[in-house]
Amino acid sequence: MSGDVPEPAYLDLIRPHTGHVTAVRSPSGGNSTADTVLIEAEHGTFFVKAVPNRPGGRRASLLREAAINPYVAPDLSPVMRWRAQDETWIVLGFNVIEARPADFTPGSPDLPAVVDILNRITALPLPEVARGWTETRWDAHADDPDFLRGDALLYTDIHPDNLLIGQTRTWAIDWSWPTRGAAFIDPALLVIQLIAAGHTPKAAEDWAADCTAWNDADPRAVDAFAIATARMWQTFSERRPEEAWMQAMAEATCQWTAYRDL
User: Fold this and answer.
1) What are the Cα distances from residue 243, in Å, to 239, 246, 249?
2) Which SUPFAM superfamilies does the record cross-reference, listed alphabetically (predicted)?
């Protein structure tokens, strides 16, 4: 794409699904990007994600999101309506939902709904398509990666912008990197996000305690994950000191490991 508007070849690629495109805008109302746009068209309005069709993590994550969608939509995530692909682009078109980002701060009324959707994700049977998606992102930082293994479908991309609160339901969007691993990992990631949002580690773990997967976890496995995650974010934040959000994650994981006396 060039600038804020998809290039003509991109629009030609999706036209069989959208019909004539009448408007392109950012999901947040600002400038659109090459990755995600809202497209208003002859056949409706679509949330559209696109990546260049070349080997790499972005292509792999979009293909994984397309593969998992039938197992998480429509109950947990918006339905993928269509997929378009040529030598240049891979494009996915989703239903548009009316929802807002969850509030993770202390006292937020959204937190029970956040816990509920994590429990609903945990309750999903592992789809056969995900059986080969072993979670390994923490392995390089873990003393014993076996603690992180399991047969649960993991969402892993937990933060307020991805857990959306609608009028009648909560949505988990952007399934860019679902994996197979220990079920407690998603609640543990929520703990880190809650600490970063201002909760004490104890308060964050109290919310995680409402998650079935957290209560079923071996405390040694949670400790192993906390240590690995703290090491990971420390490494990332040292490499990218200009990224404030990485610094926030490093600080949150440091608070968490200190609370657990690790």
Assistant:
1) 9, 5, 10
2) Protein kinase-like (PK-like)
Tell me which long-range contacts 57-62 makes (C-beta under 8 A, separation of at least 24): 59/90, 61/176, 61/177, 62/90, 62/92, 62/176
Q: Span 8-95: which CATH code?
A: 3.30.200.20
Going from N- to C-terminal start, the domains of the chain cover: 8-95, 99-259
| pLDDT tens sequence across 122-173 | 999 999 999 999 999 999 999 999 999 999 999 999 999 999 999 999 999 9
pLDDT of residue 140: 96
The CA distances from residue 144 to 112, 224, 227, in Å, are: 32, 7, 11
Kindly give, in sequence order, each residue whose CB lies less than 8 Å from that of residue 23, ignoring residues fewer than 6 positions away: 39, 40
Which amino acid is located at 227 in the chain? Answer: I
Q: Which fold has domain 99-259?
A: Aminoglycoside 3'-phosphotransferase; Chain: A, domain 2 (3.90.1200)
Q: How far is CA 60 from CA 7, 66, 176, 178, in A?
A: 22, 10, 9, 11
Strands 163-166 and 89-95 come out as unpaired
pLDDT tens-digit profile of 67-117? 999 999 999 999 999 999 999 999 999 999 999 999 999 999 999 999 999
Find how far residue 234's CA is from the centre of its chain: 21
Q: For 180-220, what is each residue's pLDDT tens digit?
A: 999 999 999 999 999 999 999 999 999 999 999 999 999 99
